Amino acid sequence: AAGVIQSPRHLIKEKRETATLKCYPIPRHDTVYWYQQGPGQDPQFLISFYEKMQSDKGSIPDRFSAQQFSDYHSELNMSSLELGDSALYFCASRGTSGRSYQETQYFGPGTRLLVL
Amino acid sequence: AQSVAQPEDQVNVAEGNPLTVKCTYSVSGNPYLFWYVQYPNRGLQFLLKYITGDNLVKGSYGFEAEFNKSQTSFHLKKPSALVSDSALYFCAVRDMSRGSTLGRLYFGRGTQLTVWP
User: How far does B16 lie from chain A, in Å, by closest CA?
Assistant: First the structure.
């Protein structure tokens, strides 16, 4: 079965640079969630989108922004990167409408970001 | 507010023995509970969930979890552990604070399971 796709899988950036992470949800999933997992930490919710609209916002820095496009893929844009942004960034998708409705969020493999 | 606690950072068990990974929760209203497993350098894989119904939930790879409302617990169990079960296990609860069906997940700190051959 198709899974959540994230790209790139690994990314190395310098401080103050920008980064864009991409997430392609499971087909027919309309809701996308972004989580950040620091070293040795549990995943922390950043932001979510439903039908291209922001549905919830967590501990996402103002330097970060995200959006969901008409094909339901999502991008997390990160600017003025700091050393503390080094983490594993997960995207999860879920079907929340009609016959695609389910309770479970399915996670992608993550993008490992290293800021030097 | 929703939260989960995993009281053990590490659980060690011999192969073939039963294993239990503990999770307790705090929610307002009925809990939606999940277990995920994370292998090194991999994403979070869904194991099982409790939404409603039977308190004993069966999931992937022979895992099961028991929902106990009076003890606010959702412990993960497996009758016979395998070395390949060694991984990081996360318990999670879905945010229902606003009655939203789109709620974020709140994760526990994770429990590292090591199964010795």
Answer: 28
Partner A contacted by B100 (CB < 8 A): yes
- Chain A residues with CB inside 8 Å of B102's CB? 31, 48, 50, 55-56, 96
B60-106 confidence digits (pLDDT tens): 999 999 999 999 999 999 999 999 999 999 999 998 776 565 789 99
Residues of chain B contacting residue A96, judged by C-beta atoms under 8 Å apart: 101-102
Q: How far is CA B72 from CA B7, B29, B78, B113, in A?
A: 13, 12, 20, 22
Is B106 an interface residue toward A (CB < 8 Å)? yes
**Per-residue pLDDT tens digits for A63-96:** 999 999 999 999 999 999 999 999 999 999 998 8
Percent of chain A with pLDDT over 90: 84
Of the candidates B23, B44, B19, the residue with the CA atom closest to the CA atom of residue B114: B19
